[in-house]
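Title: Prediction job returns without error message
Component: structure pipeline
Severity: low
Priority: P3
Assignee: unassigned

Description:
Job completed but the reporter wants confirmation the result is attached to the right record. Sequence as submitted:
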Amino acid sequence: METQPLRVPAASVRGGIPAFEVMRVIDAVVARRALGLPIFDLSAGQPSTPAPATVRAAAAQAIDADRLGYTNALGIPPLRAAIARHYRHTDSLEVAAGSVAVTTGSSGGFLLAFLAAFDPGDTVVMARPGYPAYRNMLAALGCTVVELPCGPETRFQPTVAQLDALPAAPQGIVLASPANPTGTMVAPGELAAITAWCDRNGVRVVSDEIYHGITYGEPAVSSWRFSRSAIVVNSFSKYFSMTGWRAGWLLVPDELLDSVDRLAGNFTICPPALSQVAAVAAFDAYDELDANVQRYKHNRDLLLRRLPTVGLDRLAPADGAFYIYADVARWTDDSLGFAARLLAETGVAVAPGVDFDPVEGGHFIRMCFAGDTAEIDRAVDLLGEWLPR
């Protein structure tokens, strides 16, 4: 009897979304380190400091004393209450603990927000350049993504004029302030105008505020100051220096709370219990965390001063976060190959701009300045020696 060949099902279309290229850079960094080769890592968008001492102590105590079983789908009540108090401390905003949903990092928060707010076929607008996971996650969920080209003339942020120019109002918009990769912020007046435009036109705002707390002039302003129909996404990863703990949160409009609760219970059951218990103690560490921000500011000022001396003088204004987004069009229109050669030949790791901008990103790179100051300084030396003059 003749054996029939196996018919293996193909991968889903949604599984074919573009790769997040910086993760491949990180893989190359790990491989290079394993070989004992020098690394000057400006690629990964994360603090180089550990979680605050209060968090680590709380985690150690919880491991010894707590069962650490399943929790409420939207997070343990003490953490939801602590996050609500955080908004009174930082933004003078009154937020009810019941409006807070704890999530598995901001990535889990975006997934819940997009699922709760949008249906397949809905149009969602975002800035270009912008964080690629917005675009790719929305595409995987069947949404149509419209990218607004945002350059130096708008400080790399969308404007009401751009929204007015759209042929039809979208179902949603993703705002990021401070933004990844540019570090730019939406000014409070413009944020008020954008959220008002969205409320008038029935457009849901998803506001990425994960870099709040890391600013170098005026503090960032939450979208909830202007509109309680916005979904706010925040995280313990950046300001709180807890990337690997995978803990974040949403501020959820009343009409979406039940949907977010249902989705969270089905998708993840609950966020990581240990991280939740430990994160309550993060709000006792403002002094330690603000000292981290002062170090970021020192590193930012170093790069803004030194990069023009090696030829990199077209830089996005880094109002917040911990990134420099640099135009390297003098040398390349292939930032992916440029970053690979730079790493292989010097040990300096940067993120290619194609991650953040599929149209113009070939001549941009992103450099993270959350690391060691001496390492960043040496990376600029090596970059200057490597770049053709």
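Comment from assignee: result matches the submitted record. The longest strand covers residues 123-128.
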